[in-house]
Every structure is written in structure tokens, then in C-alpha cells.
Design a protein that fits this description.
Layout: H1 24-39, E1 47-49, E2 59-62, E3 71-82, E4 91-92, E5 105-109, E6 112-117, E7 124-130, E8 136-142, H2 143-156, H3 161-167, E9 173-176, E10 179-182
Length: 185
């Protein structure tokens, strides 16, 4: 299993290089990434980008639910977005907190443990990417899957969800002993 890289590792803040050739090394890396993602359980992970495991490559995987089949995205880019004011993110909080309404969806990251924010993301995106065979795909994605993909594409561009939170002037929360506490910054 691969080790997940945490902030402040510099690889998380740099744009990646495109995957030029999908060969045995890339296929092996994807399999290792899937094992690593599935092994995450506190909290469970729904996406993993190559920079998060120390690779400077335009590659990520998503697995929106434990029952979902893992999807592979190589050299992905978002072509269009449909604007939305809804907050769609990676986790719904059931944790107690007087300052955060119960049930507010929160986004987190395996590379920034125990930090959460109600980041606002577009509801629907058009994405272009390659699958493991090298075939190019273009499709519209919406809801939770679109949120995960936007989060992972941000990783490929060296952007973390905490930056999105600061840009949107939205609070960050730290999880301590099962409760969320607003961070002061």
C-alpha cells in the first residue's frame, strides 16, 4: 500500500505533468492507488490523486461509495461547468457542533487529516479524460461525483480544498474527539 502525502509536502502545491504513455508502470500505480484508497477508513476516502501519493502525474481515481467500481481519470480536464450556488461536498457531518448546522455537507482531504469545510462547488461539469486503455472520454457529471472530480482536478493543478475555502470566505473546521471546532485564521 502507498503512503498518503500530507501537507505541507510541496508536491501538493504544484501542477502535475501529463501522463504521456499508459504502460505497465501506470497500470501498476493505479492498482496500488486503488488499494490505498480502499484502505482509508478514518475517514473513508472517495478519491485519490497521484500527487497525494508522491507522483507528479495527471492521474486520479474515484470511488464515491464502498460499493462503487473505481473509476480512473488520466489527463483529465474540466471543459465546462454549470454554475450552482449549492454546496456539494465530500462528507455529510453528523458530528456535534453548535456553530455548524447538523447535516451540513463538508469537504475533506486525505492529505489534510481532520480538517473540513463546506466548500461550494458547481453542481455539473463536462470532463474530458482518458481511461486506462488510453481511450478518450467526454461526459457530463453531476452531484457528488462532480464534487469529487473537481476536488481531484484541483489536486492536479496544485490546489487544495482549503484554498477554495479561503477564496470563498468559508470557515474551516478541525475535528477533535468527534466534534468540529472552527479554525481561526
Amino acid at each position: 500500500m502507498l503512503k498518503v502525502v500530507n501537507v505541507p509536502d510541496p508536491i501538493l502545491g504544484k501542477p502535475v505533468k501529463p501522463v504521456k504513455k499508459i504502460d505497465g508502470k501506470i497500470i501498476k500505480l493505479v492498482k496500488e492507488m486503488e488499494k490505498t484508497l480502499v484502505a482509508q477508513n478514518d475517514p473513508p476516502g472517495v478519491g485519490l490523486a497521484a500527487p497525494q501519493i508522491g507522483y507528479d502525474l495527471a492521474l486520479f481515481i474515484i470511488k464515491p461509495t464502498p460499493e462503487s467500481k473505481t473509476e480512473i481519470f488520466i489527463n483529465a480536464r474540466i471543459l465546462k461547468i454549470e454554475k450552482s450556488t449549492e454546496t456539494l461536498t465530500d462528507k455529510t457531518s453528523g458530528k456535534k457542533n453548535k456553530k455548524l448546522k447538523k447535516g451540513t455537507p463538508l469537504e475533506g482531504c486525505l492529505s489534510i487529516p481532520r480538517i473540513w469545510s463546506p466548500v461550494k462547488r458547481p453542481e455539473k461539469i463536462l470532463i474530458e479524460y482518458q481511461i486506462i486503455t488510453g481511450e478518450k472520454k467526454t461526459r457530463w457529471v453531476s452531484g457528488f461525483e462532480a464534487t469529487i472530480i473537481q476536488h481531484e482536478v484541483d489536486h492536479l493543478n496544485g490546489i487544495l480544498f482549503t484554498q477554495r475555502s479561503l477564496e470563498q470566505n468559508i470557515p474551516l473546521f478541525e475535528e477533535k474527539e468527534g466534534e468540529l471546532h472552527r479554525l481561526k485564521y
